[in-house]
Amino acid sequence: MTTTTKKDPVIVIVQLTGGNDYLNTVIPYNNSLYKDYRPSVNIDEEKVLKINNDIGFHPAMNDLHKMYQDGNVAVIHGVGYENSPRSHFRSMDIWHTCEPDKLGTEGWLGRAVKQIDPNKQNVVTAVSMGASLYRALVAPDVPVATVENLDNYGLLTDISPQDKRNRVLDRYKKMYSPMIGSGPVMDFLGQTGLDAIKGADILNIAPSKYTSSVEYADNSISRKLKGIAQIHLANLGTRVFYCDLGSFDTHADQLSTHDRLWTSASRAIRDFFDDLESHGEADNVTMFLFSEFGRRVYDNGAGTDHGAGGVCFAIGPNVKGGEYGNYPSMNESKLDQGDLVPEIDFRSVYSTLIEDWMNLDPLPIVGGQFEKPDFIIK
C-alpha cells in the first residue's frame, strides 16, 4: 500500500483593477508603430527588460523578469472577448461571471469552490483579501472569508475558553436567525454572516503561527500577499485566494503611476514566492494576474484611455514559462476602434487554470468548451 503526499492545488488571483496598459507592460519595443502611436506615453528601448528580439517587460518589472528567465512566468498575449464594452463595471462583471452576453449571477470561482467543497466542510476554502468580496467568488451557498487586515481580523480572538467562545457564536447565530428563512436573499446574507464569523475565528490563528525572514514592502499588494502567505502556511485548507491592486485607470500621469504599481507588484510577487519557497510550501501554488481590459493604442498626451485586448500572467513552479498566443497586430487596418484585437478568449485561460491546475471540470464554470493554452506543467 502506498500513500500520497501530493498537496491540493492552490490558486492565487491578483486582479489588476482599472485596465492595465498592455503595450507598456509587455512592450513591443522593436515595432516602429509603438512610438508612432505613443509619442508621449512610451518606454525607452534601452530601459525595456527584453525577453526576446521583439518584446520586453516594463523596467519596473525587474523581479518578474528574473522569474521569467527562471522559467516560472507565462505571458499570455491578447486575452479578452469580442465586442468589449470598454466599461470598467461591465467588463469586470464579464471576467467575474464568464457571461459576456448577459448579466451573470454567479462568480466563476464561486462555482469552482462548489466543486472543491460541495458540502461546505471548510468555510475558508476561499479567502478574499480586501475591503469587499470580489464578485468572482460569489455564488449561493458558497462561504468566502473576506479579510481586509489579517492582523486584526477575527471578532472573537480574545475569548476563551472554547465553550465561552461557542456561547458567543451561538448569540451571533441568534442575532442572524431572524434573517434566515425569510427569503432567498436574506437567507444567503444570514448564512454568509455566520460563515464569515466562523472564518474569522479560523483565520485568526495564521499570523501567530507565521515566522519568515522575508521582509515585505509596506504597501497594499505586499500586505495582501503576505496575508495570503500566512494563511497558506497555516495549512487551513484554503484553495482559492483573491486580491487586487490598482488603480491602473491611467487616463493621466500614466508613466509615473504605471511605474509605481508595477514596482510594488513585481517585488510583492517575488517576496511572496520567496516566502513560500523558504518554507517548502510553494510547490502547489499558482498565481494568475489579469485586468479587465487593455488600453487604447494611441496615447492621449498624458495617459491612455480604455481599450480592449490585454495580457495575462501565470506564475509559479508549475507554470511552463514563455509566451502563449501572438502579440496582436498593431497595423492600423487590424485595429478595432483604435484598439488591439484579442485573439484568446479569457475563458480559454480560465479553462487551463480550472482543468489543468485545479483538476476541476471547466464546462459548468466557464459555460462552454474552449481551446486551452498549455501553460501548466502536467
Features:
378 residues, alpha/beta, Alkaline Phosphatase, subunit A, three-stranded antiparallel β-sheet, 11 helices, 13% strand
Radius of gyration: 21 Å
Tell me the domain tally: 2
The proportion of residues in beta strands is: 5-15%
**Uncertain regions: pLDDT < 50 for 5+ in a row?**
154-161
- Helix content range of the residues, please? 25-40%
CATH architecture annotation name of the largest domain: 3-Layer(aba) Sandwich
Listing every helix as H and every strand as E from the N terminus to the C terminus, the arrangement reads EEHEEHEHHEEHHHHEHEEEEHH
- Number of DSSP helical runs: 11
N- and C-termini, Cα separation: 24 Å
| Record field, number of beta strands | 12
What structural class is derived from the secondary structure elements? Answer: alpha/beta
The CATH C-level class name of the largest domain: Alpha Beta
Largest sheet: 9 strands, mixed
Would you tell me the overall average pLDDT? 88
| Topology-level CATH name of the largest domain | Alkaline Phosphatase, subunit A
Overall form: globular
